[in-house]
Amino acid sequence: MIKKIVGSILILSSFFAMSKQGTTHIYMAGDSTMSIKDVKDYPETGWGMPFSIFFNESVSVVNLAKNGRSTRTFKTEGLWKKIIDNIQVGDYVFIQFGHNDESKKKIDRYTSPDQFADNLTHFINDINAKKAHAILLTPITRRYFNKMGTLKETHPIYADKVRQVAQETGVDFIDMEKVTTAYFQSLGDKGSALRFMHIGANLHPNYPFGVTDDTHLNQLGAREVAQLVLTQLKILNHPLVKKLRTPDPKHLKLKG
Asked: What are the pLDDT digits (tens) for 119-165?
């Protein structure tokens, strides 16, 4: 009984700490390319993990992105409701889906293009009703090179649906499919492979037989994609840029 009481006190303390006046919350709604990973999955890393430490103490990042989720299952499993039930005036929600919505082979998560667009619009309307701010992103590219050494388009129709919804609703928009395609293309086949889950056999305890995965990022890839998102926010002159972490002067190298 004492343990339960202590646990409840800790939970309430955390809630009030997060909800203290002046705190801006960034909620993250998305799939495995954005989500927090368990230790058993490392070095697989969602870009939302390094992104969360870019901001100062006035910002609290709540990453609710989950592996395998589409816009449809994010709703049916109650993950979207968690955001809407807790979001406050002036908060932000990053929305990035598409990988699983477009997967016809996995009918448990597949969402038709029109329903995908409707779900995104529904999310944005919910956020607007709470007087918060949506930031819509196209899904990051998969790493599929053709014989000519060019990255293939991996989100046909669905990325365009995101662009369409962004234009129709007027929300802040980052075209991460184009941004990541340009970035990984610049690195080439070998360089880009170092950013994804490519591990040889007997090199990592989590993957004794090795793994070749051109969808999910490793720690390096996730950090660089998070940096690409931040760069786009700076290009937009987004208000969140004013809430970035200030470096410790001790860590800055003196010039001259």
From this structure: 999 999 999 999 999 999 999 999 999 988 899 999 999 999 999 99
| CA dihedral sign, ordered 99, 102, 103, 109 | positive
Backbone angles phi, psi at 136, to 5 degrees: -100, 135
The residue count of the chain comes to 256
Look up tokens 């997060």; give the residue. Answer: 18
Reading the block at residue 112, the tokens are: 């038709």
Distances in Å between the Cα of 28 and the Cα atoms of 49, 96, 97, 205, 240 are 10, 8, 11, 30, 14
Q: Which of 89, 59, 94 is nearest to 242 (CA)?
A: 59
Contact (CB, 8 A) for 73 and 109:
yes
CA trace torsion 151, 96, 51, 44 (10° rounding):
-60
Q: How many CB atoms lie within 10 A of CB 213?
A: 15
The answer, as to whether pTM is greater than 0.70, is: yes
Sheet holding 172-174, edge to edge: 59-63, 24-30, 92-96, 133-137, 172-174
Q: Sketch out the chain's domains with CATH numbers.
A: 24-242 (3.40.50.1110)
- The H or E element containing residue 164 is helix 158-169
Q: What share of the chain is helix, strand, coil (3-state, %, to 5)?
A: 45, 15, 40
